[in-house]
Write a structure and sequence with these properties.
This protein is α/β, with parallel strands linked by helices. About 45% of the residues lie in helices and about 15% in strands. A 7-stranded parallel β-sheet has the order 3-2-1-4-5-6-8, with helices on both faces. Strand 1, helix 1 and strand 2 form a beta-alpha-beta unit. Helix 1 crosses helix 8, helix 4 packs parallel to helix 5 and helix 9 runs parallel beside helix 13. The longest helix is centred in the C-terminal third of the chain and has 15 residues. The mean pLDDT is about 95.
């Protein structure tokens, strides 16, 4: 049996959908905070169990019978994510899981200034010490491109701090590859990098978008402190703005530049590129 955490979220939910096309529903269970929100899975034969990283005993019970557990990483900047992930790893071990698969982050290595890297590195260390087989999926950035680029379609500009090459990756491609790994016979141990095939910069994306729309799109580089001030003025808490700034700093230092072939290999096709995703947006 495969148990998936975070199944009412975007990545976890999409992974369950792809699993349902590969294995019988009764081989899938989900561990969720609110079972009512997973009713659509229960109606299709998936076992729905209540579990939360904050409640170790209930979490362990929700993992009962699991051969594999997919631990979807938390993303609350105010929470102690290392402790919460420790609860998840320990619960999976106590439940007898033979493999733990964890959704890590591309560039989860020492020195990366992007702050969430710290808890991903620590969680991978917990997995290495757990005594069971483990896989860490170092996923490429898979957020919506509009979230990254800003309102470029209305303004004609990408106004962001200095960046660096990033293989922006489609979330559904990552979910499908995760399901392939969980449902397949091939074992992958340790960290794996899953990304789109090509790393691009904002300059590249401006050129691509210009070609797609037939109108020039300008790339405007904003100094770091000015960008933070602009974010605060627009209502973003300063702490949040400075956290996001570390992502740009990591990008221009090259921590997200690697674009590997494994995602394409697992999918059996080319993953969607940033250009593909922009084309879909423009067409819509």
């Amino acid at each position: 049996m495969i148990v998936v955490t975070g199944a009412t979220g975007g990545l976890g939910g999409a992974t369950v959908e792809h699993l349902l096309t590969r294995v019988p529903a009764d081989r899938i269970a989900v561990s969720v905070r609110d079972a009512a929100k997973a009713r659509h899975f229960a109606d299709r034969g998936v076992r729905v169990r209540q579990g939360s990283y904050e409640e170790p005993t209930a979490l362990r019970d929700s993992f009962a019978g699991a051969e594999q557990v997919l631990v979807v990483s938390g993303n609350d900047p105010a929470a102690d994510m290392i402790s919460l992930h420790r609860n998840a790893v320990e619960a999976a071990v106590e439940a007898g899981a033979q493999r733990i698969v964890y959704t890590s982050q591309q560039g989860a290595v020492a020195g990366n200034p992007y702050r969430p890297s710290e808890f991903h590195i620590a969680t991978e260390a917990l997995l290495a010490e757990s005594g069971v087989a483990w896989t860490a999926l170092r996923n490429g950035a898979y957020g919506p491109l509009d979230q990254v680029l800003g309102p470029w379609q209305s303004t004609g500009e990408i106004v962001q701090p200095e960046d660096g090459p990033i293989p922006y990756t489609d979330r559904d491609d990552i979910a499908e590859a995760t399901a392939v790994l969980l449902a397949g016979d091939r074992a992958f141990d340790g960290p794996l990098t899953l990304t789109a095939p090509t790393a691009v910069t904002f300059d590249d994306l401006a050129t691509i978008a210009s070609d797609l729309t037939g109108r020039p799109l300008k790339r405007v580089v904003v100094e770091d402190e000015q960008w933070v001030a602009d974010q605060v003025a627009s209502g973003v808490p300063e702490q949040t703005a400075r956290l996001i700034l570390t992502w740009y700093q990591a990008a221009r230092a090259g921590y997200f530049a690697e674009a590997g072939p494994l995602l394409a290999e697992l999918l059996g096709r080319e993953p969607r590129s940033a250009a593909d995703r922009l084309a879909t947006q423009v067409a819509a």
